[in-house]
Write a structure and sequence with these properties.
The protein has 273 residues and is of the alpha+beta class. Strand 1 and strand 2 form a beta hairpin. The radius of gyration is 18 Å and the shape is globular. Its EC number is 3.1.3.25.
Length: 273
């Protein structure tokens, strides 16, 4: 598999989808509810169709899992694309210009390529496993972290299926609010991963995260030098075959990971007590 060719196809596809979103985002939107409390708009559907046409046209033997239309392509393909045509749909529905487009290519359940495009800034970031992460300003690895004299700035993400009265959710958010300077709830997880890789924020904490937008963003952060651990402290690689209860993680620079893991361990223990 030529991952450099796949990267070029993916970058061109997400940027074309970004152009479509940017041109239509200020028009009238049709919004409908989805199961699990999420929403979908006609923009999600249009951008997804464009992405699927590009990807399936270039790789007809690959399997595709898309946010809105589900599974398509070759059912037994060794390679699987994950497609999030509009990460930040709720923001767009509210008129907030905070959204991105993301795709990932996986093999043997592991992300090998991740690409994220910000249509508003017209910027794209990508990573290939073992080859580093890059963006508009060049390689992302080795960039210094922020000074955090008043505590870290974190991005929080959770799965749509997490109940509002989930005991662990309550304990985790309360603990993070006390420890952190700010806890950002962006409603666009892929944007949080990019911000972490760029050094704009200090960590991403996820609780039962969604499967489609997790692997690509995680790979960009890992290839930029960030450490990602599951709540149990073991390395977390964003495998696509993990059930929701195993998609909880802390991603940060190495010096901060143990501190945050201790915090989430204590919080989840209180939730079980």
């Amino acid at each position: 598999m030529d991952l450099d060719h796949a990267r070029r196809v993916a970058v061109a596809a997400v940027e074309a989808a970004g152009d479509l979103l940017r041109e239509r985002v200020h028009g009238a939107l049709r919004v409908r509810a989805k199961e699990g409390g999420d929403i979908v708009t006609d923009l999600d559907v249009a951008a997804e169709k464009l992405l699927l046409d590009r990807i399936q046209g270039a790789f007809p033997g690959h399997r595709v899992v898309a946010e809105e239309s589900g599974v398509s392509g070759a059912p037994d393909g060794e390679w699987t694309w994950l497609v999030d045509p509009l990460d930040g749909t709720s923001n767009v529905a509210l008129g907030l210009p905070l959204y991105v487009v993301g795709v990932a290519l996986c093999h043997a359940c592991l992300p090998r390529l991740g690409v994220v495009h910000d249509p508003v800034a017209r910027q794209t970031w990508w990573a290939v496993r073992g080859q580093g992460a890059s963006g508009p300003a060049g390689p992302l690895a080795g960039r210094p972290g922020r000074a955090a004299p008043h505590g870290p700035v974190l991005a929080w993400t959770q799965g749509h299926g997490v109940a509002r009265d989930d005991p662990a959710l309550r304990e985790l958010k309360a603990a993070l609010d006390v420890r952190a300077r700010r806890v950002l709830q962006l409603w666009a997880p892929l944007l949080g991963w990019v911000m972490l890789a760029r050094g704009d924020i200090d960590a991403v904490v996820g609780y039962r995260a969604e499967a489609v937008d997790l692997p690509g963003g995680l790979l960009i952060a890992q290839e930029a030098g960030l450490t990602v651990r599951g709540f149990d402290g073991t390395p977390f690689d964003g495998r696509t075959d993990l059930p929701p209860e195993r998609r909880s993680f802390v991603a940060a620079r190495p010096a901060l990971v143990d501190d945050l893991l201790g915090l989430v361990t204590d919080a989840t223990a209180r939730a079980r007590a």
